[in-house]
Design brief:
Length: 324
């Protein structure tokens, strides 16, 4: 299919363009900017993102004060949740990777700001520091939110036009998220194989799932559950976002080919796979000024796309000359 723009778009979707690098003349493929929808900046060195093909990131748990200080015009473009909202003693309090600047305990379902431990207080604090999403922890086995407190957090977040993304882990937590109208799951559910009916309910509710399959690569039960759940979710029309949970264990800064390959194996392929990478969520507007450039020949087939993406880099838009 080398050099055929129609075959290229059949494989990668309407946004893929054959192009050349203006400076070197080397040919390749341009795509919109690629986004990792689940990372933790405070745990990694962000200098490798552009060379590794990632132009935008979503921090799902960090110090809101530090995040608010970061310059807005940097690559990768950043969207963030600020601190993770959790019940008293809930996840991730006490974890070594989670200093107390990155979580807030919510102990009161109050919808009025200014109350210590109140739902509105915690949401408003993140919003004030520039959060684009609100993150909650729903972790069975530790302290868990009651439906009223979680409902209050979601209500205030939605009043502020902020989607709510949940860390969901363990029995009953997906039910809690669904009943509270949580918008996004930070991870494909991995602690159990869900029934098709329950997955269907998630699709029906318009939930979006951030993939994060590769963090389970050394846990056969978790990777098996997550792959099965994501396969069912995607096949039923569920909206999937590429995300790695970068900062959790040993993961590459930049595009994670293992994550993309695992999504491909879950049936998210071709243009559907590219869509999970170029989705601007939680922003409405695509990142301007930069593009993804993958030098060399386009992928020969669907199965080659994950490995082909390993060579993706972020380049200024004007450095690319379109061939078609
Ligand atoms: Zn995370």
């Amino acid at each position: 299919m080398n050099g055929d723009p129609f075959a290229l778009r059949a494989l990668l979707g309407p946004s893929a363009v054959l192009c050349r690098a203006a400076l070197t003349g080397s040919h390749g493929v341009a795509l919109p900017p690629l986004i990792d929808h689940h990372i933790h900046l405070h745990l990694i060195d962000e200098s490798g993102f552009a060379a590794g093909g990632i132009a935008g990131v979503v921090d799902l748990g960090g110090d809101p004060v530090a995040l608010a200080r970061r310059p807005l015009d940097h690559i990768p473009r950043l969207a963030y949740a600020g601190a993770i909202l959790t019940p008293r003693g809930g996840y991730p309090t006490g974890r070594t990777w989670a200093p107390d600047t990155i979580w807030r305990e919510v102990t009161d379902s109050s919808l009025h700001p200014g109350i210590a431990g109140g739902a509105a207080t915690a949401v408003q604090e993140q919003a004030t520091f520039g959060a684009a999403v609100i993150k909650v922890a729903l972790h069975a086995g530790t302290a868990a939110f009651d439906a009223m407190t979680l409902g209050a957090i979601v209500e205030v977040a939605h009043e502020n036009s902020l989607p709510v993304v949940a860390h969901v882990q363990g029995e009953g937590m997906l039910r809690l998220a669904l009943d509270a109208q949580v918008d996004v799951l930070a991870h494909t559910p991995f602690s159990e194989a869900l029934t098709p009916d329950l997955v269907g309910e998630c699709v029906e509710a318009g939930q979006q799932w951030i993939s994060t399959l590769d963090i389970h690569r050394d846990d056969p039960a978790a990777i098996s559950h997550a792959t099965q759940n994501l396969t069912t979710f995607a096949a039923a029309g569920g909206h999937v976002l590429y995300g790695t949970d970068l900062g959790n264990g040993d993961l590459p800064v930049g595009i994670n080919v293992r994550e993309v390959a695992a999504m491909n194996a879950a049936g998210i392929q071709g243009s559907a796979l590219i869509d999970t990478l170029i989705d601007a969520w939680p922003y409405n507007d695509a990142l301007a000024g930069v593009a993804t450039f993958v030098p060399g020949d386009p992928p020969a087939s669907i199965e080659h796309i994950p490995r082909w993406l390993a060579n993706a880099t972020v380049v200024p838009h004007e450095e690319l000359v379109h061939d078609d």
